[in-house]
User: What shape does this take?
Amino acid sequence: MPLLLNRRSLFAAMAAILSSSKPGEAKFERAFDISTADGTPIRNFRIAAGRSLSDLPGVILAGPRDAGPILYEFFDYGCGYCRVAAQELDVLLTPDAGVRSALVQHPVLSPRSADAARVVLAAARLHGDAAAYRLHVGLFETPGPTGTEKALAVAAAQGLRAAAVAEEAAREEIAAILAAQSERARALLLPQTPSFVLGEFAFVGWPGAAPMESFIEATRRCGGLRCPLPD
Assistant: This one.
């Protein structure tokens, strides 16, 4: 099947996923009384039992292997807040930060976002997670509209085999990984980007670097986004 048709079919499927939530699932939940850096309340909740992310294919990991909790980020390459999150997290997630980063593709804004996501997933398959993470950060640092052309240009500039990456990105296996990641976002009730899962809890939106540091520390100490844990 042509890549263009694959792309449109994938984006249509993801749009259907997002529109399938039940009305009761959209309520504003707050397991913890937490806020962004400017004081805006953050929707957060304990993820449902059996919704672990450890079996999710294609997740790109960054950071020390022996770090504590894993911070899963669901994002879209066309999302402005995701751009801010990517840049601030790249500074925050130092070797002594005590957390690993896990990138989960969730392109909900346009088919071009899905195209870029496929390129990054393909880069991970061919060149490994470290190269894919550099490409991820580079995409957000590079101005201009997202999409295949931009993603491959950044990949080439970083020394990756762009032609091979483009061929890999067109494979059905990549489309299946992308669909699985967006399906897991739906299952976790995380339709917006960026959204995060840290330990047993999920939260929506980029909170800012300082709140994120506090969430990571609380998760390491208490297993939740804030100490003590809710009843």
Remarks:
- The CA atoms of residues 31 and 45 lie 5 Å apart.
